[in-house]
Amino acid sequence: MKIAVIGAGAIGALVAGYLSREGVDVTLVGRASDVPVIKDDGLAIDGVRGNTVVPVKVTDKLEKGFGLVILTVKTQDINSTLSGNVKALGNAPLLTVQNGVRAEEIIRGLIPKENIVSSIVMFGSTYLEAGRILHNFEGDWVIGRAFAPNNGIIDSIGDLLAGAFSVRITDRITGMKWLKLFLNLNNCLPALTGRSMQETFSHPDISCLSIRLLSEALSAVDRAGIELESLPDFPVARLRALTTMPLAEAGEVFSKTMTNLSREPLFGSILQSIKRGKPSEIDYFNGEIVYLGEKIGEDVTLNKKMVEMVHTVEESGRFLSPGDILNEIGG
């Protein structure tokens, strides 16, 4: 099966590099400015699997003839990326790799919903520069169909990806994507400080603020009747336990978890976008909770404040200290 990976960022380059190294026929579709660098020098991937340079076929335009297309661009870039490539997609399955819960709804307005395969990546990576990626930590790649029952196509995709990644197949992908959203809600805080997750969450009050964001979001999700499904290594029960234990205790647990995620600095997708001068995913992370809260009449003031503050940092380029953040939210 010939595979196209659209997006040469942190996840797209990692996926293309590891699959190519396993002998899969992969073409990476990236920005025109990145193509010469990757074509000449290959993809340099450092991190938990060691350091390697992988030759990868690369282009700046999707052509016809692929049996699978993996879309790794951010949610806010889906429309601009896919709108000019619908004909080239043909009838190939499109595997989504976006954070948040909105990607599939956007994509179903562009291609038949039967061709959409959802996924969740539990591994982490950092974009350093064109053709250079840091693989921070391992994790499963969860796949399943959001709009139809799983079928043989899912098994084929799973078998193909399993050569390079730990793959889980599920028939409950939507509930899992909602739970993964909770793992992304704390991305806003390193984005505000301009520092790594390890540095940001070593601050006890910032870790406690993360618990408050999670609690507020969980209240809205529960009231909306959204059913969360456990992820590999992150059961729903853990989220509920964190949000019901005493705040200081929960903050300490959260801080230990986040500061030990990776030996290398981990910045989160929102901060990575800001550092590259690009719009972030904040409207699809905490902004999703704001949208839900407005829809059902639930108070989500903290998450709304995070969205506003991140947009201010995006526009101004000025990061905040932990004290500034706490003063801004009034606690």
Task: Give a verbal description of the structure.
- The structure is a single chain.
- Strand 7 (94-96), helix 5 (103-107) and strand 8 (116-121) form a beta-alpha-beta unit.
- The mean pLDDT is 96.
- The chain folds into 2 domains: 3-171, NAD(P)-binding Rossmann-like Domain (Rossmann fold, 3-Layer(aba) Sandwich); 177-329, N-(1-d-carboxylethyl)-l-norvaline Dehydrogenase, domain 2 (Orthogonal Bundle).
- The strands form 2 sheets. An 8-stranded mixed β-sheet has the order 5-2-1-6-7-8-11-12, with helices on both faces. A 4-stranded mixed β-sheet has the order 4-3-10-9.
- It has 16 helices and 12 strands.
- The chain is globular, with a radius of gyration of 19 Å.
- The longest helix has 21 residues, at 204-224.
- 45% of the residues lie in helices and 16% in strands.
- The chain has helices at 10-21, 35-41, 78-82, 86-89, 103-107, 152-161, 173-184, 188-193, 197-200, 204-224, 236-242, 247-259, 268-275, 286-296, 301-316, 322-329; strands at residues 3-6, 26-29, 43-47, 52-54, 57-59, 68-71, 94-96, 116-121, 124-129, 132-137, 140-144, 166-169.
- Helix 14 packs across helix 15 (301-316).
- The protein has 331 residues and is an alpha/beta fold.
Tally the beta strands: 12
Radius of gyration: 19 Å
Q: Specify the structural class.
A: alpha/beta
What is the CATH T-level topology of the largest domain? Rossmann fold
Shape: globular
User: SSE order in H/E notation?
Assistant: EHEHEEEEHHEHEEEEHEHHHHHHHHHH
CATH homologous superfamily placement of the largest domain? NAD(P)-binding Rossmann-like Domain
